[in-house]
Amino acid sequence: MKPAPVRASGRGNRPVFNRRRKSCPFAGPNAPKIDYKDTRLLGRFISERGKIVPSRITAVSNKKQRELAKAIKRARFLGLLPYVVK
């Protein structure tokens, strides 16, 4: 039995782009604080369907993404943010 051929790359012939990582919007001295009462700030990180947008799209660091998710869930529980947007 012969082993199956192995591809060198799963990308095919697409060019490879080196994208520069965005900086975290909550890093730095003038960055806003994550607060469950600040619905305008939290609304920027919720999709039009009401889901929490992942950090790979918003460029939020892992630590701040956890804080953000906790604040969004707390605001939803208190009725400040909707669970589902129609």
Task: Give a description of the structure.
This protein has 86 residues and is mostly helical. The protein has a single domain (24-86), classed as 30s Ribosomal Protein S18 (Irregular), CATH 4.10.640. It is 29% helix and 0% strand. It contains three helices and no strands. The protein has helices spanning 39-43, 55-58, 62-77. The radius of gyration is 19 Å and the shape is elongated.
Q: Concise description?
A:
With 86 residues, this protein is mostly helical. The chain has 3 helices and no strands. The protein has a single domain (24-86), classed as 30s Ribosomal Protein S18 (Irregular), CATH 4.10.640.
**What's the structural domain tally?**
1
Alpha plus pi helix count? 3
Task: Kindly report the CATH topology.
Answer: 30s Ribosomal Protein S18
Secondary structural class = mainly alpha
Task: Spell out the key features of this protein.
29% helix; mainly alpha; 86 residues; 0% strand; 30s Ribosomal Protein S18; 3 helices
List the helices and strands and how they pair.
Elements: H1 39-43, H2 55-58, H3 62-77
